[in-house]
Amino acid sequence: MDYNALAQLLFPDVTQQPEDIEAQFPQRQLPEGACVTRIGPSPTGFVHLGNLYNAIIGERLAHQSGGVFYLRIEDTDNKREVEGAVETLINAMDYFGVHFDEGATADGDKGAYGPYRQRQRAGIYHVFAKHLVERGLAYPCFLTEEEIQAIREKQMANKEDPGIYGVYAQKNRWLTLDEVKANIDAGKPWVLRYKADMEPRKIFVHDDIRGCIEMPRNFVDFVLLKSDGIPTYHFAHVVDDHLMRSTHVIRGEEWISSLPMHVELFDALGWEQPKYCHTATLMKIDVSEDDPEKQIKRKLSKRKDPELALAYYQKEGISRDVVWEFLLTLLNSNYEEWRIANPEASYMDFPYSIEKMSISGALVDMDKLRDIAKDTIGRMDAQTVYDNWLSWCSEYNEEFAALLKKYPERTLAALNVGKSGKKPRKDIETWKQACDFMSFYYDETFKPEDDMDSQADKETQKKFFAKYLATYDHADDSAAWFDKVKAITDEMGFAVKPKDYKKEPEKFKGSIVHITNMLRIALTGRANAPDIHEVSHVLGEDIVRARLSKWA
RNA sequence: GGCCCGUUGGUCAAGCGGUUAAGACUCCGGCCUCUCACGCCGGCGACGGGAGUUCGAUUCUCCCACGGGUCACCA
Protein backbone atom coordinates (compact mmCIF):
# COMPACT_ATOMS: atom_id res chain seq x y z
CA MET A 1 0.00 0.00 0.00
CA ASP A 2 1.25 3.42 -0.96
CA TYR A 3 0.38 5.43 2.12
CA ASN A 4 1.41 8.70 0.58
CA ALA A 5 -1.01 8.15 -2.25
CA LEU A 6 -3.72 7.20 0.23
CA ALA A 7 -3.07 10.33 2.25
CA GLN A 8 -3.26 12.43 -0.88
CA LEU A 9 -6.49 10.75 -1.89
CA LEU A 10 -8.03 11.35 1.52
CA PHE A 11 -6.76 14.88 2.09
CA PRO A 12 -6.17 16.42 -1.33
CA ASP A 13 -6.54 19.96 0.02
CA VAL A 14 -4.03 19.62 2.82
CA THR A 15 -0.75 21.13 1.73
CA GLN A 16 0.85 21.99 5.06
CA GLN A 17 3.22 19.76 6.96
CA PRO A 18 3.17 19.21 10.70
CA GLU A 19 6.31 21.36 10.98
CA ASP A 20 4.45 24.27 9.40
CA ILE A 21 1.80 24.09 12.06
CA GLU A 22 4.31 23.62 14.84
CA ALA A 23 6.09 26.75 13.68
CA GLN A 24 2.88 28.74 13.97
CA PHE A 25 2.54 27.87 17.65
CA PRO A 26 5.98 28.08 19.18
CA GLN A 27 6.75 27.11 22.75
CA ARG A 28 5.49 29.75 25.11
CA GLN A 29 8.05 31.98 26.73
CA LEU A 30 7.08 31.69 30.35
CA PRO A 31 8.88 31.68 33.68
CA GLU A 32 10.18 28.40 35.03
CA GLY A 33 7.37 26.32 36.49
CA ALA A 34 4.57 28.32 34.91
CA CYS A 35 1.46 26.25 34.23
CA VAL A 36 -0.62 26.54 31.11
CA THR A 37 -4.13 25.28 31.77
CA ARG A 38 -7.52 25.47 30.22
CA ILE A 39 -11.09 24.46 30.47
CA GLY A 40 -12.66 22.86 27.47
CA PRO A 41 -16.38 22.81 27.92
CA SER A 42 -18.74 21.67 25.23
CA PRO A 43 -21.44 24.20 24.49
CA THR A 44 -24.54 22.31 25.54
CA GLY A 45 -26.17 25.26 27.24
CA PHE A 46 -25.88 23.78 30.70
CA VAL A 47 -23.06 25.08 32.84
CA HIS A 48 -22.58 23.08 35.97
CA LEU A 49 -20.72 23.19 39.24
CA GLY A 50 -18.18 20.73 37.93
CA ASN A 51 -17.21 23.16 35.17
CA LEU A 52 -16.49 25.79 37.81
CA TYR A 53 -14.74 23.28 40.02
CA ASN A 54 -12.26 22.40 37.29
CA ALA A 55 -12.03 25.99 36.15
CA ILE A 56 -10.95 27.09 39.61
CA ILE A 57 -8.18 24.51 39.70
CA GLY A 58 -6.89 25.55 36.32
CA GLU A 59 -7.20 29.24 37.06
CA ARG A 60 -5.34 28.96 40.37
CA LEU A 61 -2.60 26.75 38.97
CA ALA A 62 -1.98 29.07 36.03
CA HIS A 63 -2.22 32.40 37.77
CA GLN A 64 -0.34 31.35 40.84
CA SER A 65 2.58 30.27 38.71
CA GLY A 66 2.65 33.16 36.28
CA GLY A 67 1.22 30.98 33.53
CA VAL A 68 -1.70 31.13 31.16
CA PHE A 69 -5.31 30.07 31.59
CA TYR A 70 -7.48 29.84 28.53
CA LEU A 71 -10.94 28.88 27.36
CA ARG A 72 -11.32 26.43 24.52
CA ILE A 73 -14.73 25.61 23.17
CA GLU A 74 -15.04 21.92 22.43
CA ASP A 75 -17.79 22.03 19.88
CA THR A 76 -16.94 18.93 17.89
CA ASP A 77 -20.38 17.46 18.41
CA ASN A 78 -22.68 19.43 16.19
CA LYS A 79 -25.66 17.39 17.33
CA ARG A 80 -25.45 18.57 20.90
CA GLU A 81 -24.66 22.17 20.33
CA VAL A 82 -27.23 24.62 21.60
CA GLU A 83 -27.75 28.11 20.25
CA GLY A 84 -26.23 30.75 22.49
CA ALA A 85 -24.49 28.22 24.71
CA VAL A 86 -21.08 29.81 24.30
CA GLU A 87 -22.43 33.15 25.51
CA THR A 88 -24.15 31.47 28.46
CA LEU A 89 -20.90 29.82 29.38
CA ILE A 90 -18.81 32.95 29.10
CA ASN A 91 -21.33 34.92 31.14
CA ALA A 92 -21.40 32.31 33.86
CA MET A 93 -17.62 32.22 34.12
CA ASP A 94 -17.58 35.98 34.27
CA TYR A 95 -20.26 36.08 36.97
CA PHE A 96 -18.22 33.71 39.09
CA GLY A 97 -15.08 35.71 38.61
CA VAL A 98 -13.14 33.26 36.47
CA HIS A 99 -10.87 35.25 34.20
CA PHE A 100 -9.19 33.89 31.10
CA ASP A 101 -5.98 35.17 29.60
CA GLU A 102 -6.85 33.91 26.18
CA GLY A 103 -9.39 31.87 24.31
CA ALA A 104 -12.97 32.33 23.24
CA THR A 105 -14.65 35.53 24.38
CA ALA A 106 -18.00 37.16 23.79
CA ASP A 107 -16.53 39.01 20.83
CA GLY A 108 -14.39 36.44 19.13
CA ASP A 109 -11.12 34.86 20.07
CA LYS A 110 -8.25 36.42 21.95
CA GLY A 111 -4.72 35.05 21.95
CA ALA A 112 -2.06 33.73 19.59
CA TYR A 113 -2.74 30.02 19.90
CA GLY A 114 -6.19 30.00 18.34
CA PRO A 115 -8.62 29.51 16.93
CA TYR A 116 -10.02 28.37 20.26
CA ARG A 117 -13.16 26.76 18.92
CA GLN A 118 -12.49 23.27 17.67
CA ARG A 119 -14.84 23.38 14.71
CA GLN A 120 -12.69 26.20 13.35
CA ARG A 121 -9.57 24.11 13.71
CA ALA A 122 -10.55 21.42 11.24
CA GLY A 123 -7.72 22.34 8.89
CA ILE A 124 -5.16 21.92 11.66
CA TYR A 125 -6.39 18.46 12.62
CA HIS A 126 -6.34 17.39 8.98
CA VAL A 127 -2.63 18.14 8.67
CA PHE A 128 -1.87 15.71 11.47
CA ALA A 129 -4.45 13.22 10.27
CA LYS A 130 -2.83 13.20 6.85
CA HIS A 131 0.55 12.76 8.47
CA LEU A 132 -0.69 9.70 10.36
CA VAL A 133 -2.08 8.23 7.17
CA GLU A 134 1.23 8.75 5.38
CA ARG A 135 2.93 6.80 8.11
CA GLY A 136 0.39 3.97 7.95
CA LEU A 137 -0.99 4.78 11.39
CA ALA A 138 -4.49 5.71 10.33
CA TYR A 139 -6.89 4.51 7.68
CA PRO A 140 -10.29 5.29 6.26
CA CYS A 141 -13.10 3.06 7.43
CA PHE A 142 -16.30 2.63 5.47
CA LEU A 143 -18.20 0.53 7.95
CA THR A 144 -21.84 1.52 8.15
CA GLU A 145 -23.76 1.96 11.36
CA GLU A 146 -25.53 -1.36 10.71
CA GLU A 147 -22.28 -3.21 10.17
CA ILE A 148 -20.85 -1.82 13.37
CA GLN A 149 -24.00 -2.79 15.21
CA ALA A 150 -23.75 -6.32 13.84
CA ILE A 151 -20.14 -6.56 14.96
CA ARG A 152 -21.07 -5.38 18.43
CA GLU A 153 -23.82 -7.94 18.72
CA LYS A 154 -21.49 -10.68 17.68
CA GLN A 155 -18.95 -9.52 20.22
CA MET A 156 -21.55 -9.42 22.95
CA ALA A 157 -22.65 -12.93 22.10
CA ASN A 158 -19.04 -14.12 22.23
CA LYS A 159 -18.37 -12.15 25.38
CA GLU A 160 -15.60 -10.29 23.66
CA ASP A 161 -14.59 -6.68 24.13
CA PRO A 162 -16.72 -4.44 21.98
CA GLY A 163 -15.19 -2.22 19.36
CA ILE A 164 -13.47 -2.14 16.02
CA TYR A 165 -10.12 -3.84 16.44
CA GLY A 166 -8.08 -6.84 15.34
CA VAL A 167 -10.03 -9.20 13.14
CA TYR A 168 -13.06 -6.94 13.20
CA ALA A 169 -11.02 -4.19 11.62
CA GLN A 170 -9.34 -6.29 8.95
CA LYS A 171 -11.79 -5.55 6.18
CA ASN A 172 -11.18 -1.81 6.16
CA ARG A 173 -7.64 -1.79 7.42
CA TRP A 174 -6.25 -3.45 4.33
CA LEU A 175 -8.36 -1.95 1.60
CA THR A 176 -6.33 -1.31 -1.54
CA LEU A 177 -5.90 2.17 -2.88
CA ASP A 178 -8.28 1.38 -5.71
CA GLU A 179 -10.92 0.08 -3.33
CA VAL A 180 -10.68 3.22 -1.23
CA LYS A 181 -10.90 5.34 -4.33
CA ALA A 182 -13.91 3.43 -5.57
CA ASN A 183 -15.68 3.85 -2.25
CA ILE A 184 -14.98 7.54 -2.14
CA ASP A 185 -16.06 8.01 -5.72
CA ALA A 186 -19.24 6.15 -4.89
CA GLY A 187 -19.83 8.79 -2.20
CA LYS A 188 -19.59 6.39 0.70
CA PRO A 189 -19.01 8.21 3.98
CA TRP A 190 -15.91 7.29 5.89
CA VAL A 191 -14.27 7.95 9.21
CA LEU A 192 -10.58 7.99 9.87
CA ARG A 193 -9.52 5.34 12.34
CA TYR A 194 -6.33 4.93 14.25
CA LYS A 195 -4.54 1.73 13.35
CA ALA A 196 -3.91 0.24 16.76
CA ASP A 197 -1.08 -2.08 17.56
CA MET A 198 -2.43 -5.31 18.95
CA GLU A 199 0.69 -6.24 20.87
CA PRO A 200 -0.51 -6.43 24.49
CA ARG A 201 1.34 -4.18 26.85
CA LYS A 202 0.79 -2.21 30.01
CA ILE A 203 0.94 1.54 30.08
CA PHE A 204 1.69 3.70 33.07
CA VAL A 205 0.35 7.19 33.26
CA HIS A 206 1.31 9.58 35.97
CA ASP A 207 -1.62 11.54 37.31
CA ASP A 208 -0.71 14.51 39.47
CA ILE A 209 -3.66 13.90 41.73
CA ARG A 210 -3.79 10.13 41.81
CA GLY A 211 -0.25 9.04 41.23
CA CYS A 212 0.62 6.25 38.85
CA ILE A 213 -2.26 4.68 36.94
CA GLU A 214 -1.64 1.34 35.29
CA MET A 215 -3.77 0.30 32.35
CA PRO A 216 -3.71 -2.06 29.40
CA ARG A 217 -2.63 -0.24 26.27
CA ASN A 218 -5.19 0.74 23.70
CA PHE A 219 -6.00 -1.95 21.14
CA VAL A 220 -9.04 -0.37 19.51
CA ASP A 221 -9.07 1.30 16.11
CA PHE A 222 -10.82 4.31 17.56
CA VAL A 223 -12.13 7.14 15.43
CA LEU A 224 -9.92 10.13 14.82
CA LEU A 225 -12.07 12.03 12.38
CA LYS A 226 -15.81 11.64 12.08
CA SER A 227 -17.44 11.43 8.68
CA ASP A 228 -17.98 15.18 8.68
CA GLY A 229 -14.23 15.66 8.96
CA ILE A 230 -14.46 16.95 12.53
CA PRO A 231 -12.26 15.17 15.06
CA THR A 232 -13.46 13.20 18.04
CA TYR A 233 -12.66 14.50 21.51
CA HIS A 234 -9.63 12.23 21.72
CA PHE A 235 -7.87 13.48 18.63
CA ALA A 236 -8.80 17.09 19.28
CA HIS A 237 -7.56 16.91 22.85
CA VAL A 238 -4.16 15.61 21.85
CA VAL A 239 -3.63 18.03 18.98
CA ASP A 240 -4.98 21.07 20.82
CA ASP A 241 -3.29 20.59 24.13
CA HIS A 242 -0.04 20.01 22.33
CA LEU A 243 -0.28 23.00 20.02
CA MET A 244 -1.71 25.31 22.64
CA ARG A 245 1.14 24.18 24.84
CA SER A 246 -0.94 23.14 27.81
CA THR A 247 1.21 21.89 30.64
CA HIS A 248 -1.64 20.47 32.71
CA VAL A 249 -4.83 18.80 31.59
CA ILE A 250 -7.44 19.15 34.30
CA ARG A 251 -10.61 17.21 33.65
CA GLY A 252 -13.10 14.92 35.34
CA GLU A 253 -12.25 11.38 36.29
CA GLU A 254 -14.62 10.05 33.65
CA TRP A 255 -11.73 10.57 31.24
CA ILE A 256 -9.40 8.16 32.95
CA SER A 257 -10.68 5.28 30.92
CA SER A 258 -9.81 6.96 27.65
CA LEU A 259 -6.26 7.63 28.76
CA PRO A 260 -4.85 4.70 26.74
CA MET A 261 -6.10 6.30 23.53
CA HIS A 262 -4.54 9.60 24.46
CA VAL A 263 -1.12 8.27 25.36
CA GLU A 264 -1.16 6.21 22.18
CA LEU A 265 -1.73 9.35 20.13
CA PHE A 266 0.86 11.41 21.94
CA ASP A 267 3.34 8.64 21.25
CA ALA A 268 2.32 8.24 17.63
CA LEU A 269 2.73 11.94 17.02
CA GLY A 270 5.99 12.04 18.93
CA TRP A 271 4.77 14.59 21.43
CA GLU A 272 5.30 14.92 25.11
CA GLN A 273 2.27 14.27 27.27
CA PRO A 274 0.93 17.05 29.42
CA LYS A 275 0.52 16.39 33.12
CA TYR A 276 -2.84 14.89 33.81
CA CYS A 277 -5.03 15.84 36.76
CA HIS A 278 -8.23 13.85 36.92
CA THR A 279 -10.62 15.37 39.39
CA ALA A 280 -13.26 13.69 41.50
CA THR A 281 -16.90 13.76 40.54
CA LEU A 282 -19.23 15.90 42.60
CA MET A 283 -21.71 13.73 44.45
CA LYS A 284 -24.92 14.18 46.33
CA ILE A 285 -26.65 12.28 49.06
CA ASP A 286 -30.06 10.96 48.22
CA VAL A 287 -32.50 8.32 49.27
CA SER A 288 -32.38 5.10 47.37
CA GLU A 289 -35.21 4.56 44.92
CA ASP A 290 -35.48 0.90 45.85
CA ASP A 291 -35.42 1.44 49.58
CA PRO A 292 -36.49 4.85 50.86
CA GLU A 293 -34.85 4.09 54.20
CA LYS A 294 -31.47 3.76 52.59
CA GLN A 295 -29.25 6.72 51.87
CA ILE A 296 -27.01 6.56 48.88
CA LYS A 297 -24.26 8.68 47.51
CA ARG A 298 -24.63 9.36 43.86
CA LYS A 299 -23.36 11.54 41.11
CA LEU A 300 -25.02 14.91 40.88
CA SER A 301 -27.53 14.73 38.13
CA LYS A 302 -28.46 17.46 35.77
CA ARG A 303 -32.05 16.35 35.69
CA LYS A 304 -32.69 15.90 39.39
CA ASP A 305 -30.43 18.37 41.13
CA PRO A 306 -30.96 22.06 40.62
CA GLU A 307 -27.89 22.85 42.70
CA LEU A 308 -25.72 21.33 40.00
CA ALA A 309 -26.47 24.17 37.64
CA LEU A 310 -24.47 27.32 38.06
CA ALA A 311 -27.61 29.19 37.14
CA TYR A 312 -29.11 28.01 40.45
CA TYR A 313 -26.44 29.81 42.44
CA GLN A 314 -27.02 32.96 40.46
CA LYS A 315 -30.76 32.80 40.90
CA GLU A 316 -30.53 32.15 44.63
CA GLY A 317 -28.13 35.02 45.02
CA ILE A 318 -25.28 32.97 46.34
CA SER A 319 -22.30 35.23 46.15
CA ARG A 320 -19.46 34.32 43.82
CA ASP A 321 -17.09 34.60 46.76
CA VAL A 322 -19.15 32.10 48.69
CA VAL A 323 -19.06 29.63 45.84
CA TRP A 324 -15.30 30.04 45.56
CA GLU A 325 -14.76 29.58 49.27
CA PHE A 326 -17.00 26.53 49.21
CA LEU A 327 -15.32 24.94 46.24
CA LEU A 328 -11.90 25.73 47.64
CA THR A 329 -12.74 23.90 50.86
CA LEU A 330 -13.77 20.90 48.78
CA LEU A 331 -10.73 21.17 46.58
CA ASN A 332 -7.94 21.62 49.07
CA SER A 333 -8.14 19.91 52.40
CA ASN A 334 -6.13 22.58 54.16
CA TYR A 335 -8.19 25.50 52.94
CA GLU A 336 -10.35 25.87 56.03
CA GLU A 337 -7.31 25.74 58.23
CA TRP A 338 -5.72 28.47 56.17
CA ARG A 339 -8.88 30.51 56.27
CA ILE A 340 -9.02 30.39 60.06
CA ALA A 341 -5.39 31.48 60.25
CA ASN A 342 -5.94 34.23 57.67
CA PRO A 343 -9.45 35.55 58.24
CA GLU A 344 -8.86 38.79 56.38
CA ALA A 345 -7.02 37.47 53.36
CA SER A 346 -8.53 37.09 49.94
CA TYR A 347 -9.00 33.53 48.77
CA MET A 348 -6.80 34.49 45.85
CA ASP A 349 -3.88 34.55 48.27
CA PHE A 350 -4.37 30.94 49.28
CA PRO A 351 -1.44 28.82 48.12
CA TYR A 352 -3.31 26.23 46.14
CA SER A 353 -1.64 22.89 45.59
CA ILE A 354 -2.48 19.79 43.64
CA GLU A 355 -0.99 17.58 46.34
CA LYS A 356 -3.75 18.58 48.73
CA MET A 357 -6.50 17.65 46.32
CA SER A 358 -9.07 15.16 47.36
CA ILE A 359 -9.40 12.06 45.23
CA SER A 360 -12.78 10.75 46.16
CA GLY A 361 -16.00 12.33 45.11
CA ALA A 362 -17.09 15.16 47.34
CA LEU A 363 -20.65 15.61 48.39
CA VAL A 364 -22.21 18.97 47.78
CA ASP A 365 -23.38 19.85 51.27
CA MET A 366 -25.76 22.77 51.35
CA ASP A 367 -25.49 23.11 55.14
CA LYS A 368 -21.79 23.62 54.79
CA LEU A 369 -22.33 26.08 52.02
CA ARG A 370 -24.69 28.10 54.22
CA ASP A 371 -22.16 28.20 56.99
CA ILE A 372 -19.44 29.36 54.64
CA ALA A 373 -21.81 31.92 53.21
CA LYS A 374 -22.47 33.47 56.61
CA ASP A 375 -18.77 33.67 57.37
CA THR A 376 -17.81 34.98 53.98
CA ILE A 377 -20.43 37.70 53.83
CA GLY A 378 -19.85 38.43 57.49
CA ARG A 379 -16.26 39.31 56.65
CA MET A 380 -17.20 41.78 53.93
CA ASP A 381 -17.49 45.45 54.72
CA ALA A 382 -20.86 47.12 54.37
CA GLN A 383 -20.04 48.81 51.10
CA THR A 384 -18.98 45.53 49.47
CA VAL A 385 -22.12 43.83 50.68
CA TYR A 386 -24.19 46.71 49.41
CA ASP A 387 -22.58 46.63 45.97
CA ASN A 388 -22.90 42.90 45.53
CA TRP A 389 -26.40 42.78 46.87
CA LEU A 390 -27.52 45.65 44.67
CA SER A 391 -26.02 44.08 41.60
CA TRP A 392 -27.89 40.86 42.29
CA CYS A 393 -31.13 42.72 42.99
CA SER A 394 -30.80 44.65 39.76
CA GLU A 395 -31.22 41.38 37.95
CA TYR A 396 -33.48 39.35 40.20
CA ASN A 397 -35.43 41.70 42.49
CA GLU A 398 -36.20 45.06 40.98
CA GLU A 399 -38.31 46.26 43.90
CA PHE A 400 -35.42 45.80 46.27
CA ALA A 401 -32.91 47.25 43.87
CA ALA A 402 -34.99 50.40 43.85
CA LEU A 403 -35.06 50.50 47.65
CA LEU A 404 -31.33 50.04 47.92
CA LYS A 405 -30.78 52.85 45.50
CA LYS A 406 -33.31 55.07 47.26
CA TYR A 407 -31.86 54.54 50.74
CA PRO A 408 -28.15 53.93 50.36
CA GLU A 409 -27.21 55.59 53.64
CA ARG A 410 -29.75 53.73 55.70
CA THR A 411 -28.87 50.45 54.03
CA LEU A 412 -25.20 50.88 54.72
CA ALA A 413 -25.98 51.71 58.34
CA ALA A 414 -28.28 48.69 58.56
CA LEU A 415 -25.54 46.47 57.21
CA ASN A 416 -23.30 47.68 59.99
CA VAL A 417 -25.73 46.76 62.75
CA GLY A 418 -24.12 44.31 65.11
CA LYS A 419 -20.76 44.66 63.42
CA SER A 420 -19.00 46.85 65.94
CA GLY A 421 -18.20 44.28 68.61
CA LYS A 422 -15.66 41.50 68.66
CA LYS A 423 -18.33 39.02 67.70
CA PRO A 424 -20.00 40.46 64.64
CA ARG A 425 -23.38 39.21 63.60
CA LYS A 426 -23.56 36.98 60.54
CA ASP A 427 -27.08 37.42 59.33
CA ILE A 428 -26.76 37.26 55.56
CA GLU A 429 -26.37 34.02 53.66
CA THR A 430 -27.59 34.90 50.22
CA TRP A 431 -28.69 38.05 48.45
CA LYS A 432 -32.14 36.59 48.12
CA GLN A 433 -32.41 35.91 51.83
CA ALA A 434 -30.97 39.36 52.56
CA CYS A 435 -34.00 40.92 50.92
CA ASP A 436 -36.11 39.03 53.37
CA PHE A 437 -34.02 39.60 56.44
CA MET A 438 -33.54 43.31 55.85
CA SER A 439 -37.10 44.06 54.81
CA PHE A 440 -38.04 45.78 58.09
CA TYR A 441 -35.62 48.60 57.47
CA TYR A 442 -37.87 50.01 54.78
CA ASP A 443 -41.50 51.09 55.21
CA GLU A 444 -42.12 49.81 51.70
CA THR A 445 -41.37 46.23 52.70
CA PHE A 446 -41.99 46.34 56.45
CA LYS A 447 -44.65 43.91 57.57
CA PRO A 448 -45.61 42.46 60.96
CA GLU A 449 -44.66 38.82 61.23
CA ASP A 450 -44.93 38.08 64.93
CA ASP A 451 -47.94 38.59 67.15
CA MET A 452 -47.81 41.37 69.71
CA ASP A 453 -50.50 39.66 71.81
CA SER A 454 -48.14 36.84 72.60
CA GLN A 455 -46.10 39.23 74.72
CA ALA A 456 -48.76 41.08 76.74
CA ASP A 457 -52.43 41.93 76.71
CA LYS A 458 -53.77 44.85 74.72
CA GLU A 459 -54.09 47.15 77.69
CA THR A 460 -50.51 46.57 78.79
CA GLN A 461 -49.34 47.13 75.25
CA LYS A 462 -51.03 50.52 75.06
CA LYS A 463 -49.76 51.54 78.45
CA PHE A 464 -46.23 50.49 77.68
CA PHE A 465 -45.93 52.22 74.34
CA ALA A 466 -47.42 55.42 75.76
CA LYS A 467 -44.86 55.45 78.55
CA TYR A 468 -42.02 54.57 76.24
CA LEU A 469 -42.83 57.29 73.76
CA ALA A 470 -43.23 59.81 76.54
CA THR A 471 -39.68 59.33 77.76
CA TYR A 472 -38.08 58.43 74.45
CA ASP A 473 -35.11 60.55 73.54
CA HIS A 474 -33.57 59.60 70.22
CA ALA A 475 -30.26 61.07 71.32
CA ASP A 476 -29.85 58.66 74.23
CA ASP A 477 -26.90 56.36 74.01
CA SER A 478 -27.32 52.66 74.40
CA ALA A 479 -26.83 52.65 78.19
CA ALA A 480 -29.13 55.61 78.86
CA TRP A 481 -31.75 54.13 76.60
CA PHE A 482 -31.66 50.79 78.34
CA ASP A 483 -31.86 52.40 81.79
CA LYS A 484 -35.12 53.98 80.74
CA VAL A 485 -36.43 50.67 79.46
CA LYS A 486 -35.57 49.08 82.77
CA ALA A 487 -37.28 51.85 84.67
CA ILE A 488 -40.50 51.37 82.71
CA THR A 489 -40.24 47.65 83.10
CA ASP A 490 -40.09 48.01 86.84
CA GLU A 491 -42.89 50.58 86.98
CA MET A 492 -45.18 48.27 85.09
CA GLY A 493 -44.62 45.38 87.43
CA PHE A 494 -42.40 43.37 85.09
CA ALA A 495 -39.18 41.73 86.22
CA VAL A 496 -36.10 43.68 85.20
CA LYS A 497 -34.00 40.56 85.44
CA PRO A 498 -35.30 37.62 83.42
CA LYS A 499 -33.95 35.25 86.03
CA ASP A 500 -36.11 36.73 88.75
CA TYR A 501 -39.15 36.16 86.62
CA LYS A 502 -38.06 32.64 85.88
CA LYS A 503 -37.67 31.92 89.56
CA GLU A 504 -40.90 33.52 90.75
CA PRO A 505 -43.21 34.10 87.79
CA GLU A 506 -46.20 34.71 90.02
CA LYS A 507 -44.64 37.87 91.43
CA PHE A 508 -44.48 39.65 88.08
CA LYS A 509 -46.70 40.45 85.10
CA GLY A 510 -43.85 39.30 82.91
CA SER A 511 -40.20 40.09 82.38
CA ILE A 512 -38.12 42.59 80.51
CA VAL A 513 -38.02 40.06 77.71
CA HIS A 514 -41.71 40.67 77.08
CA ILE A 515 -41.16 44.41 77.17
CA THR A 516 -38.27 44.40 74.74
CA ASN A 517 -40.05 41.92 72.52
CA MET A 518 -42.95 44.33 72.24
CA LEU A 519 -40.51 46.96 71.11
CA ARG A 520 -38.98 44.62 68.59
CA ILE A 521 -42.28 43.59 67.16
CA ALA A 522 -43.39 47.18 66.83
CA LEU A 523 -40.11 48.24 65.30
CA THR A 524 -39.21 45.28 63.14
CA GLY A 525 -42.34 43.20 62.94
CA ARG A 526 -40.63 40.29 64.58
CA ALA A 527 -39.58 39.10 68.02
CA ASN A 528 -36.20 38.01 66.75
CA ALA A 529 -34.20 40.89 65.44
CA PRO A 530 -30.91 42.69 66.02
CA ASP A 531 -30.25 45.18 68.79
CA ILE A 532 -33.17 47.55 69.35
CA HIS A 533 -31.13 50.63 70.06
CA GLU A 534 -29.01 50.17 66.96
CA VAL A 535 -31.98 49.41 64.77
CA SER A 536 -33.77 52.52 66.06
CA HIS A 537 -30.87 54.64 64.99
CA VAL A 538 -30.74 53.14 61.55
CA LEU A 539 -34.46 53.77 61.09
CA GLY A 540 -34.29 57.33 62.37
CA GLU A 541 -36.52 59.08 64.88
CA ASP A 542 -39.45 59.69 62.54
CA ILE A 543 -39.90 56.07 61.57
CA VAL A 544 -39.37 54.90 65.14
CA ARG A 545 -42.07 57.19 66.47
CA ALA A 546 -44.42 56.37 63.66
CA ARG A 547 -44.11 52.62 64.14
CA LEU A 548 -44.47 52.83 67.92
CA SER A 549 -47.34 55.30 67.91
CA LYS A 550 -49.57 52.78 66.22
CA TRP A 551 -49.60 50.76 69.42
CA ALA A 552 -49.89 53.53 71.98
C1' G B 1 -19.32 -8.48 32.09
C1' G B 2 -14.04 -6.34 30.92
C1' C B 3 -10.97 -2.35 32.38
C1' C B 4 -10.12 1.68 35.67
C1' C B 5 -10.77 4.87 40.10
C1' G B 6 -12.19 5.07 45.05
C1' U B 7 -13.60 3.38 50.57
C1' U B 8 -11.59 7.22 58.17
C1' G B 9 -18.00 9.66 62.24
C1' G B 10 -24.44 11.72 58.82
C1' U B 11 -21.12 15.18 55.57
C1' C B 12 -16.04 17.42 54.20
C1' A B 13 -11.63 15.68 56.00
C1' A B 14 -6.23 15.36 58.77
C1' G B 15 -3.26 11.02 59.14
C1' C B 16 1.52 9.08 55.35
C1' G B 17 4.01 1.74 60.76
C1' G B 18 3.53 3.10 67.30
C1' U B 19 -1.62 9.16 68.03
C1' U B 20 -6.23 9.33 74.13
C1' A B 21 -7.45 8.74 65.48
C1' A B 22 -7.01 16.29 64.48
C1' G B 23 -10.25 19.99 62.72
C1' A B 24 -14.85 21.95 60.09
C1' C B 25 -20.33 21.40 59.07
C1' U B 26 -24.86 19.17 61.07
C1' C B 27 -27.32 17.55 65.63
C1' C B 28 -27.73 17.74 71.18
C1' G B 29 -26.49 20.04 76.01
C1' G B 30 -24.54 24.41 78.73
C1' C B 31 -22.67 29.48 79.20
C1' C B 32 -23.12 34.64 77.55
C1' U B 33 -27.56 37.65 76.93
C1' C B 34 -33.30 42.41 76.43
C1' U B 35 -34.95 38.35 71.71
C1' C B 36 -32.54 36.09 67.72
C1' A B 37 -28.01 35.60 65.90
C1' C B 38 -22.72 35.71 66.94
C1' G B 39 -19.19 33.72 70.28
C1' C B 40 -17.36 30.34 73.95
C1' C B 41 -17.37 25.42 76.53
C1' G B 42 -18.89 20.42 76.29
C1' G B 43 -21.26 15.95 74.07
C1' C B 44 -22.91 12.14 70.36
C1' G B 45 -20.28 9.97 66.41
C1' A B 46 -15.40 6.79 62.23
C1' C B 47 -10.66 3.66 60.14
C1' G B 48 -16.02 -1.62 54.90
C1' G B 49 -14.62 -7.19 55.68
C1' G B 50 -10.86 -11.12 55.59
C1' A B 51 -5.96 -12.87 55.09
C1' G B 52 -0.73 -11.65 55.06
C1' U B 53 4.11 -8.56 56.04
C1' U B 54 5.71 -6.70 60.90
C1' C B 55 7.32 -6.63 67.68
C1' G B 56 3.21 -3.44 66.10
C1' A B 57 -1.19 -1.85 61.17
C1' U B 58 -6.04 3.39 59.74
C1' U B 59 -1.23 3.58 57.32
C1' C B 60 2.24 -1.62 53.24
C1' U B 61 0.54 -6.30 50.00
C1' C B 62 -3.34 -9.53 48.29
C1' C B 63 -8.44 -11.18 48.07
C1' C B 64 -13.56 -9.92 48.79
C1' A B 65 -17.61 -6.47 49.46
C1' C B 66 -19.55 -1.83 48.44
C1' G B 67 -19.69 2.94 45.69
C1' G B 68 -18.36 5.46 41.23
C1' G B 69 -16.60 5.84 36.17
C1' U B 70 -16.03 3.92 31.25
C1' C B 71 -16.56 0.62 27.28
C1' A B 72 -20.03 5.74 20.55
C1' C B 73 -18.75 8.86 14.14
C1' C B 74 -20.86 12.36 22.93
C1' A B 75 -17.89 15.23 25.28
Major beta sheet summary = 4 strands, mixed
Unreliable spans: 287-295
Tell how many strands the DSSP assignment holds.
Answer: 13
Examine the secondary-structure arrangement and name the CATH architecture of the domain at 3-15 and 122-279.
Answer: 3-Layer(aba) Sandwich
How would you sum up the global shape?
Answer: elongated
Report the helical percentage: 40-55%
Tally of helical segments: 24
Strand order across the biggest sheet? 1-2-3-4
Q: Give me the CATH superfamily of the domain at 3-15 and 122-279.
A: HUPs
Distance between the termini: 103 Å
Say what the CATH topology of the domain at 3-15 and 122-279 is: Rossmann fold
Strand coverage percent: 5-15%
